[in-house]
Design brief:
This protein is α+β, with helices and mostly antiparallel strands. The chain has a domain at 1-8 and 16-30 and 61-88. Helix content is 32%, strand content 32%. The protein has a five-stranded mixed β-sheet with strand order 1-5-4-3-2. Helix 1 runs antiparallel to helix 2 (27-41). It is globular and about 40 Å long.
């Protein structure tokens, strides 16, 4: 298993804070999902998520969707964007 350092781009942190503030009924779920994102992506990140255009990857951690990049040479994951899973 390869360990990665997970970082959050300031834009993603602002999005997370905005979601947490706007969706008071989901605060516990949002907090739990953000912790899970960190733990999940710190191991073998290159094999995680679904490939997206421009070298991005995406993965769902209900109620959140996260978009991230992986730098294998630096063993670094950068969370670039986060939003709520679309509700139908």
């Amino acid at each position: 298993m390869t360990k990665y350092t997970v970082t959050w781009h300031p834009k993603a942190l602002a999005q997370l804070a905005d979601l947490w503030n706007k969706h008071t009924d989901l605060r516990d779920d949002i907090s739990a999902a953000s912790r899970l994102i960190d733990r999940h992506l710190q191991w073998d990140a290159q094999a995680k998520g679904e490939a997206l255009p421009d070298g991005l990857k995406g993965e769902i951690f209900p109620p959140l969707v996260v978009v991230f990049t992986v730098s294998e040479s630096d063993r670094l994951v950068d969370i670039g964007a986060i939003r709520l899973v679309r509700q139908s």
